[in-house]
């Protein structure tokens, strides 16, 4: 049976019309599902008894439940493990911050892109998540923890733009005022640089924040760290980002994991500044000490400070992300879905 949580409000409206219902019933049902977290059609008291019965026979309401929770030692991050219907596992992370709660969702089981520093990539690709499995992570966590999520980042397991259609539906359900009601400007998609996916965002008029995992400014090294670079070279990617900034008027972010002796030399820092200026990117640079995966070592504080100084001198906004949840393996690139 189809899961109602896989449908956008538009799709649900069309389905209801075919069943002799009304389009506005979709908004009522969205309110029941996403605001009240109703688990059955029976509870939806403002729908007619006939429609409730019909829907019960036609659609499932399949929520996720977390299997396991791990809390970081500082108590500011909670990692959730979910077992899906086919027993595959995914993870999400809730970050509790003074300025609002940020939730990091997975979009695929595993990932096909094989970036060399990433635990998810090493586990290989299993399958795409359905829209309801993406939004379901947030629903489960809001329900179980009694919290309200304010910001969503698509930075968990998987490459969101490689599961574009389901990712897009999840964005629409998240941002629907009758649904979870988190504005697209409070949603950030992180990509390793799948250029056609960025084109899709533009074509569909989505207005989500874009964060790109750059990690090197030289094709020869980026080919190794982020293999999708062999297909979409740095110049092609940056040109597309220039277009994204111009069309959406949104700031973008460049993520840069700092790996000692690999991508943290001054030549990289200088080239990064040169490229940001060349492509007129309205961007913030996030310098991320690489999280221990295999034998990779993070750049030291002195190197990161030196990069920050260079970026500041070039008037480029930058942060060095304070890692959250490293002790529970909830940090970026460490989600592997293992129990
Ligand atoms: N597939 C998307 C989103 C998920 S990965 C992407 O690649 O952007 C989320 C972020 O974690 C990316 O910026 C990725 O480069 C980063 N990451 C991967 N491995 C990491 C590691 N070992 N330490 C720190 N960040 C890592
Ligand atoms: Fe996939 Fe992102 Fe990990 Fe690369 S960094 S393997 S794209 S999840």
Structural summary, described in words:
The protein has eleven helices and 14 strands. It is α/β, with parallel strands linked by helices. The protein has two domains: 2-60, Orthogonal Bundle (DNA polymerase, domain 1); 66-328, Aldolase class I (TIM Barrel), CATH 3.20.20. The strands form three sheets. The chain has a ten-stranded mixed β-sheet with strand order 3-4-5-6-9-10-11-12-13-14, with helices on one face. A two-stranded parallel ribbon has the order 1-2. Helix 1 (9-18) crosses helix 2 (24-35) and helix 5 (131-145) packs parallel to helix 6 (164-175). The longest helix has 15 residues, at 131-145. It starts with a strand and ends in a 19-residue tail after the last strand. The structure holds S-adenosyl-L-homocysteine and iron/sulfur cluster. S-adenosyl-L-homocysteine binds next to strand 10 and strand 12.
- Percent strand equals 15-25%
Number of helices: 11
CATH topology of the largest domain: TIM Barrel
Looking at CATH, the homologous superfamily of the largest domain is: Aldolase class I
- The overall number of domains is 2
Bound ligands: S-adenosyl-L-homocysteine, iron/sulfur cluster
Radius of gyration equals: 21 Å
Unreliable spans are: none
* Measured distance between first and last alpha carbons: 28 Å
> Could you say what the CATH architecture of the largest domain is?
Alpha-Beta Barrel
């Amino acid at each position: 049976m189809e899961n109602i949580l896989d449908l956008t409000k538009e799709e649900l409206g069309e389905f209801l019309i075919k069943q002799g219902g009304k389009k506005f019933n979709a908004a009522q049902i969205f309110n029941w599902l996403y605001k009240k977290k109703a688990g059955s059609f029976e509870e939806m008291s403002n729908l007619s008894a006939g429609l409730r019965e019909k829907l019960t026979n036609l659609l499932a309401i399949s929520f996720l439940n977390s299997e396991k929770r791990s809390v970081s030692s500082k108590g500011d991050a909670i990692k959730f493990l979910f077992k899906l219907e086919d027993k595959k596992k995914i993870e999400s992370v809730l970050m509790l911050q003074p300025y609002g709660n940020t939730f990091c969702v997975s979009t695929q089981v595993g990932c096909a892109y094989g970036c060399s520093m990433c635990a998810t990539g090493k586990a290989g690709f299993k399958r795409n998540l359905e829209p309801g499995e993406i939004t379901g992570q947030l629903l489960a966590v809001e329900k179980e923890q009694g919290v309200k999520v304010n910001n969503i980042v698509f930075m968990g397991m998987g490459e969101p733009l490689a599961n574009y259609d389901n990712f897009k539906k999840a964005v629409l359900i998240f941002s629907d005022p009758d649904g979870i009601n988190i504005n697209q400007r409070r949603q950030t998609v992180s990509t390793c640089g799948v250029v056609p996916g960025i084109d899709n965002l533009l074509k569909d008029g989505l207005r989500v924040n874009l964060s790109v995992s750059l990690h090197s400014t030289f094709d020869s090294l980026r080919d190794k760290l982020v293999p999708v670079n062999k297909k979409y070279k740095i110049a092609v990617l940056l040109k597309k980002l220039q277009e994204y900034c111009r069309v959406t008027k949104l700031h973008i972010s460049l993520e840069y994991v700092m790996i000692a002796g690999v991508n943290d030399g001054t030549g990289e820092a200088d080239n990064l500044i040169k490229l940001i200026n060349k492509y007129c990117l309205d961007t913030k640079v996030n310098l991320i000490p690489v999280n221990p995966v295999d034998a990779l070592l993070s750049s030291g504080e002195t190197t990161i400070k030196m990069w920050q100084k260079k970026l500041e001198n070039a008037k480029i906004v930058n942060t060095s992300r304070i890692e959250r949840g490293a002790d529970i393996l909830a940090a970026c690139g460490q989600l592997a879905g293992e129990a």
